[in-house]
Amino acid sequence: MILAVGLALGATRGDATQSGRRPRERQRAKPPAKAWDKTSKSAFFDDAFVTLEGERPDFAAASAARAAGRTGVPAAAAGGEEGGFRWSTLVSPDTLTDEVKEQRKIVVASIASASEFKGGGYDKAREAFSAIALVFGVIAAHDGDVRWKKDAENARDLFARVGFNCKVGTDGSFAEAKARSADLDALLDGGAPAKKADREEDFAWSQVAARPALMSRLDVAEQTAGGIVASKGDFEKQVDSLLREIEIAAAIGEVIQQKDFEYSDDDTYRAYAAAMRDAAVRARDAARKSDYDAVRTAVGDLKKSCDACHGDYRS
After folding, report:
1. pTM, 2 dp
2. How far is CA 235 from the centre of its chain?
3. Which residue would you say has higher pLDDT here, 42 or 153?
Protein backbone atom coordinates (compact mmCIF):
# COMPACT_ATOMS: atom_id res chain seq x y z
CA MET A 1 0.00 0.00 0.00
CA ILE A 2 1.61 3.23 -1.07
CA LEU A 3 0.55 5.51 1.78
CA ALA A 4 -1.74 4.58 4.43
CA VAL A 5 -1.57 8.99 3.62
CA GLY A 6 -3.13 8.71 3.03
CA LEU A 7 -0.17 9.05 -0.37
CA ALA A 8 -1.40 9.13 0.59
CA LEU A 9 -2.54 10.13 2.70
CA GLY A 10 -6.96 11.89 13.83
CA ALA A 11 -5.01 15.16 13.23
CA THR A 12 -3.30 15.11 16.62
CA ARG A 13 -1.38 12.45 18.49
CA GLY A 14 -4.34 11.95 20.82
CA ASP A 15 -6.67 11.59 17.83
CA ALA A 16 -4.19 9.17 16.27
CA THR A 17 -4.68 6.60 19.03
CA GLN A 18 -8.45 6.84 18.75
CA SER A 19 -8.39 6.39 14.96
CA GLY A 20 -6.25 3.26 15.12
CA ARG A 21 -2.91 4.58 13.86
CA ARG A 22 0.11 4.72 16.13
CA PRO A 23 2.99 6.90 14.95
CA ARG A 24 6.34 5.96 16.43
CA GLU A 25 7.26 7.72 19.63
CA ARG A 26 10.36 9.89 19.33
CA GLN A 27 13.00 9.45 22.03
CA ARG A 28 14.09 12.75 23.54
CA ALA A 29 17.51 13.34 25.06
CA LYS A 30 17.46 13.79 28.82
CA PRO A 31 18.56 17.20 30.19
CA PRO A 32 21.82 17.41 32.17
CA ALA A 33 21.45 16.13 35.70
CA LYS A 34 23.54 18.95 37.22
CA ALA A 35 23.92 22.68 36.68
CA TRP A 36 26.86 23.76 34.48
CA ASP A 37 30.06 24.80 36.24
CA LYS A 38 31.39 28.38 35.95
CA THR A 39 33.90 27.55 33.21
CA SER A 40 31.31 25.95 30.94
CA LYS A 41 28.78 28.68 31.55
CA SER A 42 31.27 31.42 30.61
CA ALA A 43 31.41 30.10 27.03
CA PHE A 44 27.90 31.47 26.35
CA PHE A 45 26.54 35.02 26.05
CA ASP A 46 24.02 36.14 28.63
CA ASP A 47 22.04 37.82 25.82
CA ALA A 48 23.07 36.96 22.25
CA PHE A 49 20.94 39.74 20.75
CA VAL A 50 23.06 42.37 22.55
CA THR A 51 26.25 41.04 20.95
CA LEU A 52 25.17 39.90 17.45
CA GLU A 53 24.70 42.44 14.67
CA GLY A 54 22.61 42.56 11.49
CA GLU A 55 19.18 41.18 10.55
CA ARG A 56 18.10 37.76 11.67
CA PRO A 57 18.40 35.09 8.92
CA ASP A 58 15.16 33.99 7.22
CA PHE A 59 15.54 30.27 7.82
CA ALA A 60 12.06 29.48 6.44
CA ALA A 61 12.89 31.08 3.08
CA ALA A 62 16.23 29.30 2.93
CA SER A 63 14.58 25.97 3.70
CA ALA A 64 11.99 26.50 0.96
CA ALA A 65 14.72 27.37 -1.53
CA ARG A 66 16.67 24.23 -0.66
CA ALA A 67 13.53 22.11 -0.97
CA ALA A 68 12.72 23.61 -4.36
CA GLY A 69 16.21 22.93 -5.63
CA ARG A 70 16.20 19.38 -4.32
CA THR A 71 12.79 18.32 -5.59
CA GLY A 72 12.48 20.15 -8.88
CA VAL A 73 9.26 21.83 -7.68
CA PRO A 74 9.57 25.59 -8.30
CA ALA A 75 9.71 27.73 -5.16
CA ALA A 76 6.58 29.61 -6.23
CA ALA A 77 4.75 26.27 -6.28
CA ALA A 78 5.87 25.21 -2.83
CA GLY A 79 3.29 27.13 -0.87
CA GLY A 80 0.17 25.20 -1.84
CA GLU A 81 -2.85 26.53 -3.71
CA GLU A 82 -3.27 29.62 -1.52
CA GLY A 83 0.30 30.64 -2.33
CA GLY A 84 -0.28 30.50 -6.08
CA PHE A 85 0.48 26.81 -6.56
CA ARG A 86 1.18 25.79 -10.16
CA TRP A 87 -0.26 22.36 -10.82
CA SER A 88 1.70 22.19 -14.06
CA THR A 89 4.80 21.49 -11.96
CA LEU A 90 3.27 18.17 -10.94
CA VAL A 91 0.88 16.95 -13.61
CA SER A 92 0.42 17.59 -17.32
CA PRO A 93 -2.86 18.17 -19.20
CA ASP A 94 -2.29 14.91 -21.11
CA THR A 95 -2.05 12.92 -17.88
CA LEU A 96 -5.29 14.43 -16.59
CA THR A 97 -7.28 13.66 -19.74
CA ASP A 98 -5.81 10.16 -20.04
CA GLU A 99 -6.64 9.41 -16.39
CA VAL A 100 -10.30 10.29 -16.94
CA LYS A 101 -10.45 7.98 -19.98
CA GLU A 102 -8.79 5.10 -18.12
CA GLN A 103 -11.00 5.44 -15.04
CA ARG A 104 -14.09 5.55 -17.27
CA LYS A 105 -13.31 1.96 -18.35
CA ILE A 106 -13.49 0.87 -14.70
CA VAL A 107 -16.77 2.73 -14.19
CA VAL A 108 -18.35 1.10 -17.23
CA ALA A 109 -17.36 -2.39 -16.09
CA SER A 110 -18.53 -1.82 -12.52
CA ILE A 111 -22.04 -0.71 -13.52
CA ALA A 112 -22.60 -3.25 -16.29
CA SER A 113 -25.56 -4.59 -14.32
CA ALA A 114 -27.23 -4.07 -10.96
CA SER A 115 -26.04 -7.48 -9.77
CA GLU A 116 -22.46 -6.71 -10.84
CA PHE A 117 -22.60 -3.39 -9.02
CA LYS A 118 -24.10 -4.77 -5.81
CA GLY A 119 -21.80 -7.78 -5.85
CA GLY A 120 -18.69 -5.63 -5.41
CA GLY A 121 -18.66 -3.35 -8.41
CA TYR A 122 -19.74 -0.47 -6.20
CA ASP A 123 -16.32 -0.47 -4.51
CA LYS A 124 -14.51 -0.29 -7.85
CA ALA A 125 -16.91 2.47 -8.92
CA ARG A 126 -16.17 4.34 -5.69
CA GLU A 127 -12.43 4.29 -6.36
CA ALA A 128 -12.81 5.21 -10.03
CA PHE A 129 -15.26 8.06 -9.42
CA SER A 130 -13.04 9.37 -6.61
CA ALA A 131 -10.02 9.40 -8.93
CA ILE A 132 -12.08 11.19 -11.58
CA ALA A 133 -13.26 13.76 -9.03
CA LEU A 134 -9.65 14.38 -8.04
CA VAL A 135 -8.69 14.93 -11.68
CA PHE A 136 -11.47 17.45 -12.24
CA GLY A 137 -10.47 19.21 -9.03
CA VAL A 138 -6.95 19.56 -10.39
CA ILE A 139 -8.25 20.66 -13.81
CA ALA A 140 -10.33 23.39 -12.17
CA ALA A 141 -7.22 24.73 -10.39
CA HIS A 142 -4.66 23.97 -13.13
CA ASP A 143 -2.62 26.85 -14.56
CA GLY A 144 -2.47 25.26 -18.02
CA ASP A 145 -4.90 24.84 -20.88
CA VAL A 146 -6.68 21.62 -19.98
CA ARG A 147 -9.70 20.00 -21.62
CA TRP A 148 -13.01 20.33 -19.72
CA LYS A 149 -11.83 23.30 -17.69
CA LYS A 150 -15.12 25.16 -18.22
CA ASP A 151 -17.11 22.34 -16.64
CA ALA A 152 -14.43 21.13 -14.23
CA GLU A 153 -15.85 22.53 -10.97
CA ASN A 154 -19.32 21.11 -11.60
CA ALA A 155 -17.88 17.77 -12.72
CA ARG A 156 -15.59 17.68 -9.67
CA ASP A 157 -18.53 18.05 -7.30
CA LEU A 158 -20.78 15.59 -9.14
CA PHE A 159 -18.16 12.85 -9.27
CA ALA A 160 -17.05 13.51 -5.71
CA ARG A 161 -20.59 12.98 -4.46
CA VAL A 162 -21.14 9.73 -6.34
CA GLY A 163 -17.72 8.53 -5.17
CA PHE A 164 -18.75 8.97 -1.56
CA ASN A 165 -22.20 7.43 -2.14
CA CYS A 166 -20.77 4.32 -3.84
CA LYS A 167 -19.33 3.10 -0.55
CA VAL A 168 -22.43 0.88 -0.49
CA GLY A 169 -24.16 -1.06 -3.25
CA THR A 170 -27.81 -0.04 -3.24
CA ASP A 171 -30.45 0.74 -5.86
CA GLY A 172 -29.93 4.42 -5.12
CA SER A 173 -26.15 4.40 -5.51
CA PHE A 174 -26.45 2.26 -8.66
CA ALA A 175 -28.86 4.74 -10.23
CA GLU A 176 -26.58 7.65 -9.34
CA ALA A 177 -23.54 5.83 -10.72
CA LYS A 178 -25.38 5.22 -14.01
CA ALA A 179 -26.34 8.90 -14.24
CA ARG A 180 -22.78 10.08 -13.57
CA SER A 181 -21.46 7.60 -16.11
CA ALA A 182 -23.74 9.24 -18.66
CA ASP A 183 -22.35 12.64 -17.63
CA LEU A 184 -18.84 11.31 -18.12
CA ASP A 185 -19.72 10.09 -21.60
CA ALA A 186 -21.15 13.50 -22.42
CA LEU A 187 -17.90 15.19 -21.37
CA LEU A 188 -15.81 12.80 -23.45
CA ASP A 189 -18.08 13.49 -26.44
CA GLY A 190 -17.59 17.25 -26.12
CA GLY A 191 -20.72 18.03 -24.14
CA ALA A 192 -21.39 18.83 -20.49
CA PRO A 193 -22.99 17.07 -17.50
CA ALA A 194 -26.78 17.14 -17.55
CA LYS A 195 -26.94 17.88 -13.81
CA LYS A 196 -25.73 20.90 -11.88
CA ALA A 197 -24.11 20.10 -8.55
CA ASP A 198 -25.56 21.74 -5.45
CA ARG A 199 -22.83 23.58 -3.55
CA GLU A 200 -23.67 25.83 -0.60
CA GLU A 201 -20.19 26.27 0.83
CA ASP A 202 -16.66 27.03 -0.32
CA PHE A 203 -14.78 24.17 -1.92
CA ALA A 204 -12.27 22.20 0.17
CA TRP A 205 -9.99 19.45 -1.14
CA SER A 206 -11.20 17.18 1.66
CA GLN A 207 -14.57 17.04 -0.15
CA VAL A 208 -13.11 15.52 -3.32
CA ALA A 209 -12.62 11.98 -2.10
CA ALA A 210 -12.22 9.89 1.03
CA ARG A 211 -8.60 9.05 1.83
CA PRO A 212 -8.98 5.24 1.45
CA ALA A 213 -10.18 5.65 -2.15
CA LEU A 214 -7.17 7.80 -3.02
CA MET A 215 -4.87 5.36 -1.26
CA SER A 216 -6.20 2.59 -3.49
CA ARG A 217 -5.33 4.67 -6.54
CA LEU A 218 -1.86 5.32 -5.11
CA ASP A 219 -1.39 1.62 -4.56
CA VAL A 220 -2.12 1.00 -8.24
CA ALA A 221 0.28 3.78 -9.25
CA GLU A 222 3.11 2.41 -7.11
CA GLN A 223 2.70 -1.18 -8.29
CA THR A 224 2.36 -0.18 -11.94
CA ALA A 225 5.39 2.11 -11.82
CA GLY A 226 7.43 -0.54 -10.02
CA GLY A 227 6.56 -3.12 -12.66
CA ILE A 228 7.44 -0.81 -15.54
CA VAL A 229 10.90 0.06 -14.17
CA ALA A 230 11.72 -3.56 -13.34
CA SER A 231 13.60 -3.76 -16.64
CA LYS A 232 15.00 -1.19 -19.04
CA GLY A 233 13.12 -2.77 -21.92
CA ASP A 234 9.75 -2.41 -20.18
CA PHE A 235 10.61 1.17 -19.25
CA GLU A 236 11.41 2.12 -22.84
CA LYS A 237 8.18 0.52 -24.12
CA GLN A 238 5.87 1.91 -21.43
CA VAL A 239 7.31 5.33 -20.60
CA ASP A 240 3.98 7.06 -21.36
CA SER A 241 2.12 4.81 -18.92
CA LEU A 242 4.84 5.41 -16.33
CA LEU A 243 4.52 9.18 -16.70
CA ARG A 244 0.77 9.02 -16.08
CA GLU A 245 1.11 6.87 -12.97
CA ILE A 246 3.84 8.91 -11.31
CA GLU A 247 2.18 12.23 -12.13
CA ILE A 248 -1.08 11.01 -10.59
CA ALA A 249 0.91 9.90 -7.54
CA ALA A 250 2.48 13.37 -7.33
CA ALA A 251 -0.93 15.05 -7.58
CA ILE A 252 -2.41 12.88 -4.84
CA GLY A 253 0.64 13.52 -2.66
CA GLU A 254 -0.05 17.24 -2.95
CA VAL A 255 -3.81 17.04 -2.45
CA ILE A 256 -3.67 15.04 0.77
CA GLN A 257 -1.59 17.79 2.36
CA GLN A 258 -4.27 20.44 1.78
CA LYS A 259 -6.11 22.10 4.64
CA ASP A 260 -8.88 20.07 6.28
CA PHE A 261 -7.90 16.84 4.52
CA GLU A 262 -7.64 13.92 6.93
CA TYR A 263 -4.34 14.15 8.90
CA SER A 264 -3.43 17.41 7.11
CA ASP A 265 -2.38 19.05 10.39
CA ASP A 266 -0.11 16.14 11.32
CA ASP A 267 3.45 17.25 10.47
CA THR A 268 4.79 13.71 10.26
CA TYR A 269 2.05 12.62 7.89
CA ARG A 270 2.54 15.65 5.65
CA ALA A 271 6.26 14.94 5.53
CA TYR A 272 5.58 11.44 4.24
CA ALA A 273 3.15 12.80 1.64
CA ALA A 274 5.65 15.44 0.52
CA ALA A 275 8.42 12.85 0.23
CA MET A 276 6.21 10.70 -1.97
CA ARG A 277 5.23 13.65 -4.14
CA ASP A 278 8.84 14.77 -4.53
CA ALA A 279 10.03 11.28 -5.45
CA ALA A 280 7.30 11.11 -8.11
CA VAL A 281 8.47 14.47 -9.51
CA ARG A 282 12.05 13.23 -9.69
CA ALA A 283 10.89 10.07 -11.45
CA ARG A 284 8.87 12.15 -13.92
CA ASP A 285 11.81 14.43 -14.72
CA ALA A 286 14.17 11.48 -15.18
CA ALA A 287 11.67 9.66 -17.40
CA ARG A 288 11.43 12.68 -19.67
CA LYS A 289 15.21 12.49 -20.08
CA SER A 290 15.07 8.71 -20.65
CA ASP A 291 17.40 8.27 -17.67
CA TYR A 292 16.47 4.73 -16.67
CA ASP A 293 18.77 4.46 -13.65
CA ALA A 294 17.53 7.75 -12.17
CA VAL A 295 13.91 6.77 -12.80
CA ARG A 296 14.36 3.45 -11.06
CA THR A 297 16.02 5.13 -8.07
CA ALA A 298 13.23 7.70 -7.77
CA VAL A 299 10.48 5.08 -8.04
CA GLY A 300 12.30 3.14 -5.33
CA ASP A 301 12.33 6.27 -3.15
CA LEU A 302 8.61 6.70 -3.76
CA LYS A 303 7.97 3.17 -2.55
CA LYS A 304 10.20 3.67 0.50
CA SER A 305 8.33 6.80 1.55
CA CYS A 306 5.03 4.98 1.22
CA ASP A 307 6.25 1.93 3.12
CA ALA A 308 7.62 4.16 5.89
CA CYS A 309 4.28 5.94 6.17
CA HIS A 310 2.49 2.62 6.17
CA GLY A 311 4.58 1.59 9.16
CA ASP A 312 3.32 4.56 11.19
CA TYR A 313 -0.24 4.90 9.90
CA ARG A 314 -2.96 2.45 9.13
CA SER A 315 -5.95 3.06 6.84
Report:
1. 0.74
2. 24
3. 153
